[in-house]
Amino acid sequence: MAHFSHKRRARRAQEEPEDYPVLASALNIGLCVGLLGLFGVLSLVMPKPTVSEFEKRELAKMPEFSAKSLFAGEYTRDVDLFYSDTFPFREGLVSFASTLDEMKGIRMDDLRIHSGGASSSQSEEGLPDILPPGEGDESTSSAPSVADDGAEGEWKGDMFIYKGQALSAFGVGGNMSMADSYAATINAYHAALGDSVKIYNIVIPTHVEFALPERYQSITQPQKPNIDYIYGKLDPAVTGVNIYDTLSQHRDEYLYFNTDHHWTALGAYYAYVEFCKAADLTPVPLSDFTVKTKPDFLGSLYSQSQDSQLRNNPDHVDYYLPSTPYQAYLYQRNQPFTPYATSLFAEYASGVNSYSVFLGGDLPLIRIDTGVKNGRKILMVKESFGNCFAPFLVNHYEQVYVVDQRYFQLGLVNFIQENGINELLFINNIFAANTGIRIQEIRNLMYQQYVPYVPPVEEPSSSQEAPPEDEEAMPSSQEGGANGENPSQEEPLPEEEEDSVYYDDEEEE
């Protein structure tokens, strides 16, 4: 039998052509070269994307050639980045790789444990230390729970994915020092402005507070005790506006995005109703607003996790147009005295940038003049959570000023006094109200001084004549518009009669 098998193998070897290995190698080489050539041709002829919807970021651009960048190695590096960002079918391949990556890990107690550290995608709003699973303060838990249908949750990095919702756990470890500092900062404004300016404070609870069943509530600390503590530390002349109870009552509605860390305009509307009660105003019924929608929104938490559950459960952004006539003006960074006509709603916003429909994004200052004639002027200090709240105020005030605490460049106390503002609202999400850098921003606003930006003078090339030595470089008055707006279509309006510089009587704290 063995002799027969040996003879058969020998006969088959004789029948096979001697060049079979050569042909197989040539076919393999030809296939690889063909595929590489095909992708090379496609990369040249296919349109180049500029934004990755999946990763929520701008893609690399083809660099401009110069001899200097070539010899420095920068040009070839940037070309490599451009092609790695724009090769054919990249978006689908990255999505597929993310799906494969989700299959890693092990399941324990209905949780999938993933490797990966904290991300900074929410650093603009401020995040206190996140508690690991199971270290929430169960003894003081007061967060309302949702019905438990047995759905599984999973940790991904520093966020918890539950039923297609990305949730950031809240935890201050029982330390209320940041809450003390936040309340003291708000009180400092009352001390500086006196009773001539009525001050309000709104601390916004976040999605995790209202989204979990009881068995998962130990992953986060309850937010209501922290909010109540802040309000209890406010000066009696400062009004803390309780929006927690109304959000809890409406928690089954679409109050927060599933793929983004912000609340929705509907959540902001319910907060606006409570603010009206505190400010002796009559809220406009929701049915009186014109509602528009931006579909297919994948927000910051999706960008951080690239989770398939979130990708399959995109958000939509509703925004409510007020019927009160108004004219809004934006002030760009480094141009604090130059108003540009704008709208409260950036209709061009879409896709991953859909939340920017509110105010056109985060701008240092927006001034809104309305048709209301009651002598009331309000200034609102906020981070991005306040963007969808601000438009509701135009129904009740002659003027509304919206200040972003991160980018405003003038002394706020002087600004309030010189513009005759008689109401002041601080509105912050609970993470920002418990984060030192966010609190320090609000404190620094009080007496900061504006220092005009002077761009560095470029060295003149050999083909250009050097400017006179005594000629100072002046900042351009035609800088690009905020959030993609073209200032050539929005000429600066005449400046109001006001001092060109704000002077401070005391040092910045």
List the defining traits of the structure above.
three-stranded antiparallel β-sheet; alpha/beta; eight-stranded mixed β-sheet; 17 strands; single chain; globular; disordered C terminus; about 500 residues; about 30% helix
Structure description:
This protein is an alpha/beta fold and 509 residues long. Among the domains are: 45 residues, no CATH class; 300 residues, no CATH class. The protein has 13 helices and 17 strands. The protein has an 8-stranded mixed β-sheet. Strands 5-6-7 form a 3-stranded antiparallel β-sheet. A two-stranded antiparallel sheet has the order 1-2. Helix 6 packs parallel to helix 7 and helix 6 packs parallel to helix 13. The longest helix is centred in the first third of the chain and has 26 residues. The protein is globular, with a radius of gyration of 29 Å.
Topology:
Blueprint: H1 2-15, H2 20-45, E1 51-52, E2 57-58, H3 67-71, H4 74-86, H5 90-102, E3 106-108, E4 111-113, E5 153-156, E6 159-162, E7 165-168, H6 177-193, E8 198-204, H7 224-233, E9 238-240, H8 244-249, H9 265-278, E10 290-297, H10 300-305, H11 308-311, E11 315-321, E12 326-331, E13 339-342, E14 365-370, E15 377-382, E16 399-404, H12 412-418, E17 423-429, H13 436-445
Parallel strand pairs: 8-9, 8-17, 15-16, 15-17
Antiparallel strand pairs: 1-2, 3-4, 5-6, 6-7, 10-11, 12-13, 12-14, 14-16
